Amino acid sequence: MTPLPTSHLTPVPTPAPAPLLSVDDLVVQYRRPGAEPTRAVAGVSLEVRAGEVVGLVGESGCGKSTLARAVCGLTAPKEGTIAFEGAPVGPLGVRRRDPGLTRVQMVFQDPYGSLNPRRRIGAQIADGIRAAAARGDAADGATPGDLLTRVGLSADDAARYPQEFSGGQRQRIAIARALAARPRLLVGDEPISALDASAQSQVATLMRLLAVESGAGLLFISHDLSVVRLIADRIAVMYLGRIVETGPTAEVWANPRHPYTRALLAAIPQPDGAGLLPAELPGDVPDPAAPPSGCRFHPRCPVAFDGCDREDPQLVAGGVACRLYAA
Ligand SMILES: Nc1ncnc2c1ncn2[C@@H]1O[C@H](COP(=O)(O)OP(=O)(O)OP(=O)(O)O)[C@@H](O)[C@H]1O
To answer: What is the pTM of this model?
Structure first.
């Protein structure tokens, strides 16, 4: 049979690559005996693409760490899905035994607690190299010494112990250890908040540089918006278990829309002592075990209006969950 001519066929467009991380309607809850469950993450959807840095910001208690821990398989979700490179990740028990889990690496807040004080740092970094090999990732030949050099330390430091280093240096070691596992996604959970001011932007910039250079995505959690502005391509603002605004960093910075985002920006100290915007944020984040009715932010919102205590605004396509912007 004569084959059909194919030259007239319209080329099939190449589909956009699946996001590296895709979180859909995620709920994570904690249970305490005799108390209402705490929904620390109460329906979050979020994507991170390869080579992209997403900054997750919000006050203490908003659920940022809980979200990060769920993404890394350290906390089981109650509802919703987490997909990695297009494939849903399984329940926690399965994930713990899955060497593929090491494709996601986390850098924690506490540079003193996250490294084993009794082991030389070279040996701890070598664990990461072995983890990548165990899941069958082609080795790039990097040694612990090479990785230490990449984070600005010396190859000779591999023979030393964590307590011989400053907080900023330890965080660099933690980053080298995470990178050793050749992650596709790096998650930084407040990785700079325990560091002194001079080390903060250096460590944040280093994380961005190394993640992007290796084609990995970076989910960078911080309550320091000025640092997030420096390194993130996209910002997601979290309040009481929900994402309330998301968008390209420059856009959110130039035109913050959610009253909570505006208040966070207003709180950034400026050289002249004034905030960026004339807004203020009264009170604290409420207890997630008993969230306010309607919009969770309404009791603290400077522009709440009739109905905000009843209607719960969803994150719309424009990237903001606030009735001020409802169609
Ligand atoms: N193990 C736990 N058991 C019970 N409640 C918890 C637990 N961990 C966190 N929570 C609660 O869940 C909510 C969200 O906490 P989470 O640490 O995720 O927030 P966060 O935004 O990362 O804050 P921080 O920056 O202070 O870590 C808080 O109300 C917190 O008290």
So the answer is: 0.90
